[in-house]
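Workshop exercise sheet. Pairs work together: one partner reads the sequence aloud, the other fills in the structure field after running the prediction. Swap roles for the next sheet.
Pair: D.N. / O.F.
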Amino acid sequence: MTDQTPRLLLLDSASLYFRAFFGVPDSVKAPDGTPVNAVRGLLDMIARLVTDRRPTRLVACWDDDWRPAFRVEAIPSYKAHRVAVPVPGGSDVEEVPDLLTPQVPVIVEVLEAFGIARVGAPGFEADDVIGTLVARERAKPAGERAAVDVITGDRDLFQLVDDEAHVRVLYTVRGIKDLEVVDQARLAERYAVSSGAGYADMAVLRGDPSDGLPGVAGIGEKTAAALVHRYGSLEGILAARDAGDAGLTATQRRRLVEAADYLAVAPRVVRVADDAPVGDVDDALPRVAADPERLVALAERWGLASSVKRVVDALASAD
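Structure field:
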């Protein structure tokens, strides 16, 4: 990778605007008194990212379906605790803070006015959109690939880390001003797994209560990582289980046997899709607003002038 290598920034949009909502006081309001803290916070994040990371391409990846049917069919508890309104045969309504809900359409309008690509896929999460765009980049000849930075507060996307393909995650655990760069060295240091694929296998075993994924009872993060390291992959672990490999303790083998039904379906739930129906994307970083008059009107209506200006300046000064 050189200084001339194209840089693609993929934003996990919901992760970022939720973080903005909780990180910026709801006293930040439009002239009519409507809170716009999430909008302001997200725009300030984008301005900072463009200034600091100098991308040539940018995509705001979107949750067209935050709880896809294919994941729920495999594991019904998937994100079930976040359902506010069940919708039989349709997309359940997610529990979202009342003051955030009306801000999301404003974010959509402002991104459109800037000309920043906003991409979702029917029946898939933003994670899957990101995974699909990363897979497309990986499929290109080495000399044509962009270096990809995924901006998220969701550890699930660590599975996309790939040093050879120049794919990193910039994790917002400490905020946009101090992002944690997650590459394969960081995965090895923090989780004792050597690749993004290894992280996904570990995550299947460990589970994730915040997503309603039970994991394998009695196998926590350290044990899961040790098993992945020993056997190379989840498939290797299951082969060792079935063969009665001596490297597994009797308790570990029993727990893996008891979790057989979960382990048969969990990989499809945990692993990010790389084949979501994402069309062609014009992801070139806009240097000027696509619709400046609309942008000015939105800035005035919602009291976003300072944040909009920061993004305008960041885009204009991008290399």
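Discussion prompt: The chain has a mean pLDDT of 95. What would you look at next?
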